[in-house]
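Recap from last week: sequence in, structure out.
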Amino acid sequence: MRQLSLTGKERILDLACGFGRHALSLARRGYSVVGVDLTPAYVEDARTASRAEGLDASFDCMDIRDVRFSSEFDAVLSMADGAVGYLETDEENARIFDAVARALKPGGRHFLDVCNGEHAAKYFPKKWWEAGEAALSLAQFDWDPQTRRMLFGGWEYPYGQPAGKPRIETGDPIRLYTPAELAALYDARGMRVESAFSTYDGKPSDDRELQLLVVARKRP
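Predicted structure tokens:
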């Protein structure tokens, strides 16, 4: 809310919204929100929650590439990758940025949360672990420098249960972008990167960190 300079009156689009975690939270704060996701079960779950609370939040089940909003939103969210990099080719992934730029009003902002391609090229392959509230999470990251795609696999050990040998399988490859590549994608669509961070507490963008948070604004 701070980085997008939200005042409480804005209309917000949440792309690849999943169960509506962010969309519903913003709607509870008084924002008018539209969420889009490809998975019917996620969309129905979000709709049920919105109706139960009487929120100003609607949810559409569709491919991001089919989004056709035009200059309707003050802010667009692409959280937890927002499906960026998940599509078949660079050209198809670029269509997500087309949808973002088209949906924003002049002066509107996009908040993007992805993995940093600079970090992957420099530090992958690597293994990572994180102690959560209910489980220990293990992650394995590999990198294809030719396609610039990350290969990720994970495993969880719930606390209090016997631990066996992990069976980490590699998931679908995800195209990662560097800050410079993202800036070029935005620039080609009449947008400009205003700021970039590597953590949710506002640490400046750094290739030593995997996370990359970008705020870009559509030119007035």
